[in-house]
Specification:
single chain, 447 residues, alpha+beta, FAD/NAD(P)-binding domain, 2 domains, 26% strand, binds flavin-adenine dinucleotide
Length: 447
């Protein structure tokens, strides 16, 4: 039986940065297992292609590196804000070495202060966010360089799935792989991302690691002419706004703004949802962003993931995929038809969405929340609440259960670390990568 110092499960940003750090710190033999294909064999359109393989969900991501510690995860719940800020700078430095562009977006302080005040007047909270934008097209270059750096230094097995974490006397001892091989190691770092969330939840249950469900975010992708969103995207690039809805007092937020971007489909194990991208090399005449409502369920139902899937499935049932509707049609209670869509002044960038009626899919509560936020946003970016605004459904964000972890990201099972989005503690590239550094340093520090 082969024996390693550490086994890392998952080659997403969390697992890759853990591997990079272990290698830099001169840890012993390290094995990295990834259930999906290697980078050169990855195809987005294959089943599971978006999320699984070298680079994980980061490979086809928009590559926005969020540099503000309050956004993109909850690591600030586990370590002091100053430490997290330093760690984020370090991770950002590595991304730059690997080829991330030098520019930082986020706006100058005066503009941000003004936007904060204007948002307040419109009944919203504006969260200033600094970010570096790699762009979907450049993510691959960075992942290729990471692959080159690790080749020959870390043992890499792709198309190799971890089936079970082996625990002996309360401590991690290795991993059983799908081919029935058992690989022994002193430490196990699980970085399974959202695609491995169900697997790690089952493993955690088996190993009695406490966890709590995370909320599900449900909403729509909004598309407008780029000029309409410009007051926000030119001031802040990624304007994160929070709105507490009038009728339900729900927390509603904007997410993932893509100036001059495209609306795209996402296939999550047969469930078709929508998302948005912007490319550094090609620009459309539109901008898009999501409006999301967070929901938590407690008792007797505590499965927000199933709830979100149910709603997305309903959109798939009616639209045979994604739906698109003009805001004006939604407001007056009628379906958008092909003919009506042709008359829409905003030209859809996602051509395959079916013109339809989102009110058949979204519960009243979500519809009301979204319509009220669009009204509020119109004060900041006039024209957003126009009848020619396009709404695509559904956009659903599932998050993993959040596990009980120490500040070193170790579970109550000794020498077993769970990191990245799969641990429910991160939601983006920078914090997922940072979590890899935290775990790697912790175990090397133990000698
Ligand atoms: C379309 C899209 C756009 C995004 N855009 C951005 C963005 O602009 N900015 C941003 O900050 N974030 C973005 N994100 C989120 C970001 O990609 C994730 O936060 C990040 O990739 C999480 O990293 P991770 O390593 O924790 O998990 P992942 O990247 O999900 O990687 C986990 C890996 O583990 C593997 N795995 C799972 N289970 C097993 C197992 N049992 N055995 C072996 N391997 C396993 C999976 O195949 C996967 O490759 C985007 C995500 C998507 C889907």
């Amino acid at each position: 039986m082969a024996s390693y110092e550490a086994i890392i499960i998952g080659a997403g940003p969390a697992g890759l940065f853990a591997a990079l750090s272990l290698e830099n710190l001169g840890a012993g033999r390290v094995l990295l297992v990834e259930q999906g294909p290697d980078l050169t064999e990855r195809r987005r359109e294959q089943p599971g292609g978006l999320l699984c393989g070298w680079g994980g969900a980061g490979a086809y991501s928009d590559g926005k590196l969020i540099l503000s510690p309050e956004v993109g995860g909850f690591l600030s719940d586990l370590l002091p804000l100053d430490d997290l800020t330093v760690l984020i700078q370090e991770v950002d430095g590595i991304y730059q070495e690997l080829g991330a562009p030098p520019e930082i977006h986020g706006g100058d302080l005066d503009t941000l202060e003004l936007l904060k005040t204007r948002a307040r007047h419109a009944g919203m909270i504006f969260i200033p966010t600094r970010l570096r934008h790699i762009g979907t097209d450049n993510c691959r270059t960075i992942l290729t360089r990471l692959r080159e750096r690790l080749t020959g230094r870390v043992e890499i097995r792709t198309r190799c799935r971890a089936r079970r974490i082996v625990v002996e006397e309360g401590a991690a001892a290795g991993v059983a792989l799908d081919n029935n091989e058992v690989v022994r190691a002193r430490y196990v770092i699980a970085a399974p991302g959202r695609s491995g969330a169900a697997w790690i939840r089952e493993e955690a249950r088996r190993l009695a690691i406490p966890s709590v469900p995370s909320p599900v975010d449900i909403g729509v992708r909004v598309e407008v002419p780029a000029a309409v969103l410009a007051p926000l995207t030119e001031a802040a690039y990624e304007a994160k706004l929070i709105y507490y809805s009038r009728t339900f007092d729900d927390k509603v937020r904007t997410f993932c703004m893509n100036p001059h971007g495209e609306v795209v489909l996402e296939d999550l194990d047969g469930l078709v949802t929508v998302n948005g991208h912007s490319y550094t090399s090609r620009k459309t005449e539109n901008s898009n962003f999501a409006i999301l409502v967070s929901s938590t369920f407690t008792h007797p139902f505590d499965d927000p993931i199933s709830y979100g899937q149910y709603i997305a499935r309903l959109a798939n049932l009616l639209g045979q995929g994604a739906l698109v509707q003009r805001l004006g049609d939604l407001q007056v209670g009628r379906r958008t038809t092909v003919a009506r869509l042709e008359r829409c002044l905003t030209r859809p960038t996602l051509k395959s969405a079916t013109p339809g009626d989102l009110s058949f899919v979204l519960p009243y509560r979500y519809l009301k929340d979204i319509l009220e936020m669009l009204e509020a946003l119109d004060a900041l970016a006039p024209g957003i609440n126009s009848r020619h605004t396009l709404l695509y459904g559904m956009e659903v964000k599932f998050y993993s259960h959040r596990f009980q972890l120490s500040p070193e990201l170790e579970t109550p099972v000794r020498n077993l670390f769970i990191i990245g989005d799969g641990a429910g503690i991160t939601r983006g590239l920078i914090q997922a990568s940072a979590s890899g550094l935290i775990a790697a340093r912790a175990l090397v520090g133990r000698g």
